[in-house]
Amino acid sequence: MRARTKSTPPPLTTFELKRDAYGFAVRPQHLQRYREYANIYKEEEEERSDRWKSFLDRQAEFARQLHPDNSLVLEVNKINSKEENGVQRETAAKEARVHKIQIWAQIRPSLGYIEQTMSLRVKKKKDFSDNVLDVVGNGTHLQSIEEAEPTEESDDEFYDVEKNDTVQDLPSSDGGGNAEFNSSLANGASEDVFNPWKEEVENLVRGGLPMAFRGELWQAFVGVRARRVEGYYEYVTNDETKACNGVASEKWKGQIEKDLPRTFPGHPALDEDGRNALRRLLTAYARHNPSVGYCQAMNFFAALFLLLMPEENAFWTLTGIIDDYFDGYFSEEMIECQVDQLVLEDLVRERFRKLVNHLDYLGVQIAWVAGPWFLSIFMNMLPWESVLRIWDVLLYDGNRVMLFRTALALMELYGPAIVTTKDAGDAVTLLQSLTSSTFDSSQLVLTACMGYQAVNETKLQELRNKHRPSVIAAMEERARVLGLKGDCELDLPDLNEQQVMWLKVELCKLLEEKRSAVVRAEELETALMEMVKQDNRRQLSAKVVERLEQEVSELHRALADKHEQERAVLQVLMRVEQEQKVTEDARRVAEQDAAAQKCATHAVQEKYEEAMALLAQMENRAVMAETMLEATLQYQASQLKLQQHSSSSPR
């Protein structure tokens, strides 16, 4: 495995990296951090793609050895080669552009064995399937899933992985090329044939699904092919369904229309056709399950599925998620969601005593933060790479265990920072800010899966069974209190008529005050959760804007100081240039004076040399004159002596 190193990225520009590799918008305050992890994501994607391709190759080889004469294996190999060349994807994309209402596509045959394995754990609802087939065939009234399902089924039956349902329970509408495999299971083959891959597949899923396989693997995990009833989606998307179900089934239409433009705004895949597909998908589920209908957060689930798979596949995936994985979460009472919040609170109190004591001191309930986490399945709460990694494990497990493990992992990662806060608002804001910057998806998934293995479905069911009666009792009490109207009949034979009337009035006042207090408490709790889930982003944005304004003002001040410094420097430069000009002029004058002086000196030197030459000549002449004078004097002296001598001697 390659070493994961974070390289220092170049500075971000204004228009860089506003969307991640999946097309989702990256928050401005997280652009720099996302840029740091972009290369890590790319390396991890390459590694997991190689691991999955190797696994699928070995699985195909195993299937070839198990069925050496099976024509299905040869067909799988042919299609795999086409997949590698991108032929099948291009064809599917062309078909997606042609079909305007719904699209159904089989997953690639190389994933067929995984699909069959996961389909074994899907609880078959034969009464519902028969009812749906009657509806599709006869065009009669569409019943809700509550009317079609047996009332004595338990929640555990939906996730019984150990049961080996035979293939005769699987829908036969789209058996296709897997008929031989289905018949082999029907003849006695069990899930044991896949046990050699169970641990490896689990490790692969925890390591993340490749982008190219994620949509199809999600369908395989949910058991879309096993859930599908042919013709049902066409029925629930038909406008005549409204007339069959009555006006009540369309009561969510207005809210759906409001939420369509709010769903991943600006995403390149959600253009006009994408919005229409999302509208059809949400309306189809509302008609499919009127007791749940439509509630906020479903639009994000459905849009995510539409980005990864065809429209009808997305419908059956959404159906499996809402009806099975999160059964009771999005109903009007939201009983299971309330139960899970109490279960999470028990787990947090058990493992993070210091954090819980601090939150209790601040008056913060864990449900204020964890409620939006669970209802949105961390969507729009964590970076998208982390969200998709959590969904990979959650859909593979077939239950909600990963929700609790991820919440505990986040508490472990950010609990030390939370205990430093001083008030409830800061604690909630800081936790949401920290979770929204959890870009290290591998660390989060590893901490959740390996650090909290003791948090399993068995333990969660025990805690749910512990808290569910109290939640149901509270709901019944609330409904009873809210249902009380006006008169309160009391059988008090020992009281006179005036006392009875007074007690009735007082009791009605107390009940009204209690009802008002309960309603007010619910309104405050709802308002607070909405504030944490929605308005808190505005608070964070306001803080970001305030910080940006401060930075801008500081930049303005720095710019003004810089301009002042530039002006001072310009003045200094002008003075220096003037001084340099004066100096240059003085230099030129001095050079001219020096040249003149040099010329004068040269002339004087020449005159001096001429004078010295004349002086030397005069000196030579003087010497010669002196010599001649001396010689003349000597001659005259000698002549005088001769004359004197001749005059004195006799001749």
UniProtKB/TrEMBL annotation:
Residues 601-628 form a coiled coil. GO terms for molecular function: GTPase activator activity; small GTPase binding. PROSITE patterns: TBC_RABGAP. It comes from Ananas comosus var. bracteatus. Residues 208-398 form the Rab-GAP TBC domain. InterPro entries: Rab-GAP-TBC_dom, Rab-GAP_TBC_sf, Rab_GAP_TBC_domain. Keywords: Coiled coil. This is Rab-GAP TBC domain-containing protein. Pfam families: RabGAP-TBC (PF00566). PANTHER family: RAB GTPASE-ACTIVATING PROTEIN 1-LIKE, TBC1 DOMAIN FAMILY MEMBER 2B. The keyword Coiled coil applies. It comes from the Eukaryota. Signal peptide: none annotated.
